[in-house]
Amino acid sequence: MAGRWMRPRRLALITTFSAVSYAIASSSAHDSASANPLEFSITAEQGLVRSSRAIYTFAANSIDYKYSLRGLDYKSDEYLEIRSMVHSRAAKRILKLCEANKGFYIKAGQFVASLQHLPKEYTSILSALQDQALPCAFEVIEVVLKEEFGWDVMDMFEEFDKQPIAAASIAQVHRARLKNNQEVAVKIQYPGLQQQFQIDIATMNILSHAVAWLFPDYQFQWIIPEFEKTSLKELDFEEEGHNAERTARFFERNKYVKIPKIFWDKSSHRVLTMEFVHGCKIDDVEVLRTAGIDPQKVARVLVEIFAQMIFVHGCVHGDPHPGNILVHGQTGRFQIVLLDHGLYRELEESFRIDFCRLWKALVLGDTLEAQRVGERLGAGKFFKFLPIIFMGRTMESTSGLGERMSDEERRKLRDEMRLLTFGDVSQFMEGLPRDLLIVLRTDGLLRSIISKLGAQPWMRLLVNAKHAVSGLSHRNSYGTGARRASGVAVKKPQFEYLNLQLRLELLEMTYKLKDLYGSFLQLLGRLRKRLPQWLKGLNGYMVL
């Protein structure tokens, strides 16, 4: 009976969505109809096609989940196996949708892929979208420059390479040279994005609420407003320029950090002209080694940069994937170049302090304090998973900092995780403050980079802990907003601060000595293998 009732319910829902999607496309396109009637008809048709693809994907995934898992015990091995297969099929449909609709769908897919605590099938399959952007023809991009400045390209620049050097979901970058011979990179937004954004967000909102209606345990509506908020910021290139300048002020005394200079007379809401900086992608280990740069040192500097942003300044770059971070320099001397400052999060001061306290408790093994802070951060009954997320171990683990848990500990954790439903994951993530979600996203991207650079796992933990302790000794008096460019340090009791720093320095020294001892044993092992050959050669020489 229930199955028969659900079919007309879904049919009515999909029919309604089709009508609504056409209304969304038509009303959004109507805003530009007076300027160009031809543009209106094309945009309305494209909007309807894009929305229809999304509705089809939603319907296919809904039916797959509902019927594939029906009647199965969610604690059984069969349920877990089939659920993983459904996750994969659903993620592949979403990937196909993003590739077809492009634009903000690709950006939305990238956003979901970066949420490392969703099912791994989604994050791994959708990670393919990181390199999916295709550039526009120069003739299309040139229109944006003329609309923004009223000049021809060659009136603005001495040279301008019409072939883009990089392309993303909302813009592409061209290399150019100013009249004074300054080499620059020009980031130009694709035309028509604002209107396309309205259509896509409206469709995504409707579908997210439909998922919540059909699957009450899956409450992920919060993802769309969060994505909308971050995307609107990224569409404003002037805000991106101000973010870059603020970050440059944060690190003006740090010789390892380079933020390209912004040229405001050649910049606007849709065009950003900045200093061109040569360098390689931060995870290109072979190029780093060829240039005489130690990848592990690069990894440590990178972690220190973002730890300072999060724990001390409370303002963090939210999209540190390898394409947005370059390494500039050679023969041991290098700078980390931070690009694409469109996605930033200004952390609430109360969250910044609590996050500092959480890291201090995690590294020093203070379970009660970690639980208190975890509950304040909204983790609730799922607080015990925070140490696993950030440190890869439980608070009760007997393994060392940055080391793998024992087989028995991992088995116990695996059995516990098997009992979690998709609804539990939804409840956990919905309860967390949005500040923590962007920090989790950033942390996940950084961990991927430093792993490729060969960094020891304990390094990230101790660097974060040191900056957390440092962050607790500061109170940022500048509030929130674009004015937040510097902090006034109000010292906590010096004894507590110095005591914690000393404990962390000793802990780091212990791990360095342990690594050194391990390297010594490896060297000794190699020498022992070669010793018989050396002795044989020596005996032959003595006989002669």
From TrEMBL:
Q: Which UniProt keywords apply?
A: Signal
Q: Signal peptide location in the record?
A: 1-29
Residues covered by the ABC1 atypical kinase-like domain: 129-370
- Asked if the Swiss-Prot or TrEMBL record annotates the protein with the keyword Signal, the reply is yes
> Domain of life here?
Eukaryota
A Pfam short name? ABC1
For this chain, the family text in UniProt reads: Belongs to the protein kinase superfamily. ADCK protein kinase family.
What name appears for this protein in its UniProt entry?
ABC1 atypical kinase-like domain-containing protein
